[in-house]
Amino acid sequence: MNRAGWLVCVAALGCLPGRGAAQTPQIETIARVIVTGDVDGRFANPVCGGGETLVPSDDGAFSYALMRHASDPDHPLVIDTGGLLTPHGVARFSAERDPAALARLAHDLGYRALALGLNDLAASRPQTIAVARELRQLGIPMLASNLRCTEEASAFCDQLVDASDGVSTHYVNGRLTAVMSVLRQSATNAISPERARGIVIEDPIATIERFTRMAHEAGAEIVVAVVDDHVEGGALNLATELAADARPDLLLVSGQDELLFARPQTVRPVLVGPPERDGVEVRIRESAEIRDGYEFLAQPLEGRGVSVAEPVLDWIDAIGDEYCDAWGAPLDGAELDEPIDVDGMLNLVARILRETSGADVAVLNRQALDTRWTPAQPGSLSASDIYVALEYDEPLQAAEVDEAWLKRLAESAELTGAIVTPGLTTSGTGADRTVQVGGHSTDAHARYRVVTIRFLAAGGDDALVPGLGNLGAWETLGERSLRTAALRYLEGARDQDPRQSLPDDEGTLEWQFIAAADLTFSGSSIGNPMQRCTDEMRTTDPDSCDAQGFVLVDGERVPAYASTQLSLADVLTFGFNITLAANAAAPDWTWQNTSNLLYRSTWTEPTGSTGSAFVEAADQIRARSTLSWRGLRMQQDNGWYVPDPTADVFVESEFTEPVGRGYHWFLLRPTLGFRFQLADKLQFQLSGGFQTQVFEPQPTVEAGLGATLTLSPWDFMRLDSRYARLGFTFDYFVTLTDEYARGTLRGTLGASFDLAGPLAIVFQGNLFLQHQSAQDVGAAVSVTAGIRLGYLGRAVGP
Question: Which of 533, 534, 554 is nearest to 545 (CA)?
């Protein structure tokens, strides 16, 4: 912003435009303008107990001095720069139940005109219309000079002095004074869509120029314009861009934290901004040294009283009893065990949104709450607390988002500190940032439900909530809104503090359901050595061994291992691989259930005495269920690592029984042990138990020890919205008997890359090794490439 050529003063006692002018004896005050700003309807606070209904607010202390100045004989122009009567909850109640009382308050305080501010535009339309109608009947215009309405919103503009009505004029100390007010052109983007519907905001600069010329033609001696400080380019820049023949004498700027007084070297217009919830007196003076325009002096209001003005007390008497009858009683489900402040209320409401909408994450901005709110009564919340704390009742909207979107939301929350996100936690920064939902790590392929208010979903509050992009659109949740959701939850009877009754944001029970079907092209290499004779066999039955030391059965050598993986042929073939999983994670336990069905076969042509047939290349059914308890680890706070006790059941079977074995392979292996969580996706498990072949003619139970190393699917590369993933499982189990020791290693290494939608290209390697005392090692290796059709779903609870 170019501020060259400007004098800008921010002062507590006032600011003179120049020392020489201030000391000139020819200066004469010809008119006064009394300006207030950002009052937000804060005239009274609810108590509703101890014999009191409403009490005057400290924010309304300026009203005593305001009324005294307004009643002076020179009849100053008393004007508010926007939001005088909204959005505070008590003022909203009056606007709904008794708009005439609210209009009388403004009239009796001495206001002659009110600018329509953003808060007024965002307020309930019927209430704003009702108050504006009452103000109009009392001769107080509500100014919206660059606003027009289509037929849809015509009832609104009928009660305003809008762009079609021309300039509003008033006599101030006998001098005709023209007044206008302009909103930022983007104002409709900052309010809810139904409030913006039918509203057209015209260019502020063009409006001020047109109305200023119109005022001069009407004979106005003084022209005053009100402008929002957040107008495009800022108020100072707007003033410099006005045409020289169409500049108002005084530009009143809303939205100031403290008194602003500024003027360009060309004198016109002078900028004055009242401090929030306070007033400033602007004296318009003539001086012989200024040939064009006026001299201005801005200073805080003088003559403050110890309390508010009498009209404020009258208004409190008029609505206090009705207010407390309607909103003052404690809510049935809102008894508080501990005090609550604004931050506590913000988090409570956001958690209520998350719970009542069934969302994983809720998003609520701090500006949704009145930062000055305190509970009316200690120990409980009332409807009054909800209506006062939640100044705007926004509709709720929800959307399904992915992990990348959640990371952007977490970054926004961390950088701005302006939103709360119950259900979403983070660790790390930048590229190493990870997010958790409900206390669980997120998955790039999963979808998570987020709820927020429509204002944030539409990009409000400087786009605190990221846009959805190609994720879809926000869905409006019926008639539910921010305020009604909070009220309905707190109205429900409960025996405990609502903050304790809500589920733990970081302790949800989450289910993940995975289904994947792979169409594959594979090559396998199987090595099942011939069974060797033991020393005992050579001694007791030497005829069962050949000269090379191999076992003979019916004169033929036999394979050393009966495992289904080693009973197949070496082939290149097409096949399928189906994976199903249902995994649950709670704060103190996890339950992982997976199954895998793999089958491949190929047609072989006749060779020699062997006829044509299907040859199996892979035949495997596996299932695993693992239950782990994390309670011991959660209870540790001394820095020691405690593993998770784990119970595991492993099952392995086959579709078809190979010729010659004599039984269907069905391995059952239950174990108990401990799981070590080495990293977010990497875990190591030690266990002990037994295994048995259920359908073997003479089944035996073999005790053993095992170890499992697992890397859950890990996204190691991202390209736009597509991911490359890597995962593996290596499982080793050794059994010990009086006769032998036998160990089995099962390994799977898989990688995938997303193509489009649920499709991905996959690569997988499978390894099966088996060894036994006095026998050679048996090995089966397969390498697979194919296309995967995958699905990942989530559910929370019960």
Answer: 533
- % of the chain exceeding 70 in pLDDT: 90
What is the spatial distance between Cα 243 and Cα 727, in angstroms, rounded to a whole number? 69
Give strand pairing partners of 199: 149
The number of residues making up the chain comes to 798
Helix (H, G, I), strand (E, B) or coil at 137: helix
Helices and strands: H and E segment counts in the chain: 20, 42
Give the type of residue at 584: A
Residues in Cβ contact with 583 at an 8 Å cutoff, skipping those fewer than 6 apart: 511, 512, 514, 590, 591, 592, 593, 594
pLDDT at 532: 86
Kindly write down the DSSP assignment for every residue of 318-365, as one continuous string.
HHHHHHHHHH-SEEEEEE-SS---HHHHHHHHHHHHHHHHT-SEE-EE
Q: Which of 305, 383, 423 is nearest to 60 (CA)?
A: 305
pTM: 0.79
H helix runs in 390-481, sequence order: 403-416, 454-457, 460-463
Categorise residue 197: left if φ over 0, alpha if ψ from -120 to 50, beta otherwise. beta
**Between vectors from CA 456 to CA 451 and to CA 458, what angle results, nearest 5°?**
105
> Per-residue pLDDT tens for 561-579?
877 667 666 666 788 899 9
The residues, ordered by sequence, that sit 6+ positions from 737 with a Cβ below 8 Å of its Cβ are 700, 702
**DSSP summary character for residue 529:** P
Q: Are 607 and 561 in contact (CB under 8 A)?
A: no
Domain 6-301+310-318: state its class.
alpha beta
Task: Give the span between the Cα atoms of 187 and 165, in whole angstroms.
Answer: 20
Q: Where does residue 124 rank: exposed (0-12), middle (13-18), buried (19+ CB within 10 A)? A: middle
**Closest to 453 (Cα-Cα) out of 344, 554, 333, 366:** 366
The pair of structure tokens assigned to 376 is 């009316």
Please give the average per-residue pLDDT across 285-314, as a whole number.
82
Domain ranges of the chain: 6-301+310-318, 332-501, 510-796
Asked if the 510-796 domain carries CATH number 2.40.230, the reply is yes
Is the CATH number of domain 332-501 3.90.780.10?
A: yes
- Looking at residue 74, what DSSP letter applies? T
Residue 730 and residue 423: Cα distance in Å, rounded?
Answer: 34
Helix then strand then coil, in percent of the chain rounded to 5, is 25, 40, 35
What count of other Cβ atoms lies within 10 Å of the Cβ of residue 586?
16
Q: Which residue has the higher pLDDT, 635 or 505?
A: 505
Amino acid at residue number 544: S
